[in-house]
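hey can u check if this looks right to u? its 500 residues, i copy pasted from the old doc so theres a chance i mangled smth
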Amino acid sequence: MKASRQTLSLALGFLVIVASYVVVRWEGRQPFPDGCDSFGYMRLAQILREAVSSGHAPDYTIHHPQIDALRTAFAASSFPVAEWSEALAPQAHHDNPARGTIGIQYPPGTGLVLAPFSPERAPVRYSQSLVILLFLFGAGVLLIFYRRGKTEAALPLVFAAASTMILCDTVKHYSYSIQASIPFLIVGLVLLARSRDSKKARDVIVAAFALSLACLCRLPIVFHFVGWFLLAAPSLRWIFAGAFGVIFGAATLLYNWHVTGNPFTPTYGPIDNAAPSLSTIGTNLSYYFVGGGNQFVWAVIVMTLIAIPALAKSGRWKNGVLPLVALIGVPLGYFLTHAIHWSYYMHPTWLSAVWVLALAASIDLPKFSKRFATGIVVLGSVVILTALPLGKWTSHESHRTSSISESLIPTLHDDRAWIWSDFSSGSFWYYWKKPSQKMNFASPELQIWTEAWIRSRGDTLYIVEDSDSMKRARQRLEEQGISFEEAGKALGYPVYRARR
């Protein structure tokens, strides 16, 4: 009993340290709707707040006379739709020809999670709340298992909770959808694992609902489905598949119809919908597995290799190898052949694998190898503790405010002022409902044509140099004889005005 009490104290202390560290780090951050993901997910929450305030249904499209005029001009030109559908809209949005509107590309779940929190600090407050919930979960499991005299059996779940806290910190501001999906992923995995013992249809139906919400927060999580299917009790797998298909399928089709005008047209743009390509495998392998900041990834790989022999010999988890392999293998196969890569794309997969391993180690003890459970805890703790100081923990968040040069304020309310920008294009809409075109997505020919069209109307073009591609766009126009003058700063970026 004394040893169990010491284990309980050490584990609780470990949770307190990790949770405090992550909560404090998030407090020092200032979320900013900059770039694609940050703006897109904060915009989803803004849409829901506006809908509640106005008493109307949420509208996930953008409407503005300036955008309508430019779309009409593009449609009448010789340029194909694929060349201007992205350029017409701010970050995280693109044109949907079937509906004739600018639609957001992300599913609505993350907005639903962030909307209840304060608009300027929603990602911070939600992430801190999630860490506190994970701490309470870990502490609760420890106390329950301690009362049963099986404190050590709770340690894998404690490690899983701590790993999730660390993951909440590492994704920072890049994609709030990962944090939003985490509670739904955990609930779904726990219920699927529980169904192996309970044999109750209720467990897999609720799991299907929770995992559908996870996918509606972050769509690529749907690639975990094969692993989920194999994780459920064999007699309940098709009930789970049917429930998931109905819930997730109906929600997705309805949302697609609202945004794109066609239930079978995805909300994501052409770049994200590009077909898989074997040519990207080499580059993506290096990107996801080589280089700094990948301690968590390699921890999961090592733990999986340790787990497979133990799972194969385990009682109720005898068939646990295949779900684990599918849970990792299917998403990995997709992202290795996907043209776009970001380090956090695979985070939900690695996290899910950690929870499956932890559940296997905790649920099936004492039949499950105690040595394996101890190995997970030791290895995981070493990785977490080394990742804290050695990983890329520098806060990259912008501390820019929504301030703007006084000389530029009139442009925000003048429909004859046109703004081209890249990373800040969403910020103009988020704060002032001012459309801004990310013309760096357009060809040089379309950039030159659009500037001439703006000039022919007697309007003024402003270019915000918030990326190298926007700088090149300005230089390209200067080569065509268009001169620019400095007009001030917007959101911390220099702004240039075209002289007429």
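Strands lie at 61-62, 93-96, 101-104, 417-420, 460-464, 484-490, 493-498.
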